[in-house]
Amino acid sequence: MRQLLYRLGQFKRARQDAPSPEGLVRAREALSPQLFDLFSQMLPFEQAHAGRVYDGLISRGQDDPDLLAAGLLHDVGKARRPLRPWERAAAVTVKALLPGAFAKWGQGKPHGLAAGIVVAAQHAGWGAQMAAEAGAGERLVRLIRCHDAELAQVPEPDRQAVAVLQAVDAVN
């Protein structure tokens, strides 16, 4: 329940959030031009969130370029189907309260009442595909794909990086 309340508060803050000019400069410096173009496709509050994740990774002493880029791009798949506020709220609520239904309803195409759930369930894979098409390396693509996965399902070479990414993402 605490996670649900946190996520609903995050949702409320997101409506007014935007990246800082300094955050955009850091993103441009950390990403190739093609990957920065992907970053630019995200909604302003998603860019701001990504910038906070990037800064959180830096503050934890992380300097791996792939991990830092994943911090900036982990949610880029959400740009494929931007959501209305109520769709985001529905996805967060269903994931927290009905995880089995979330997994079931998250399959298929993002339309109708399940659009937010589908985007939440599939955005990691979409983002990985988008990053690969933009020329991202294999490791960055894997980190984006796995950023939302259960750690036991993450390939061993990437498990520690994904654990750090998830920890920073969860508080930003």
Written overview of the protein:
- This protein has 172 residues and is mainly α.
- Helices cover 70% and strands 0% of the residues.
- It has ten helices and no strands.
- 40% of the residues are buried.
- The mean pLDDT is 91.
* Termini Cα gap: 18 Å
The gross shape turns out to be globular
Which value, in Å, is the CA radius of gyration?
15 Å
**Range of strand content:** under 5%
* Major β-sheet annotation: none
Which class best fits the helix and strand makeup? mainly alpha
Mean pLDDT, all residues: 91
Number of helices: 10
Helix and strand sequence:
HHHHHHHHHH
Question: What are the low-pLDDT stretches, counting only 5+ consecutive residues below 50?
Answer: none
Report the strand count.
0
What is the strand and helix layout of this fold?
Blueprint: H1 2-14, H2 21-30, H3 33-41, H4 44-59, H5 65-73, H6 85-97, H7 99-105, H8 115-133, H9 138-146, H10 156-170
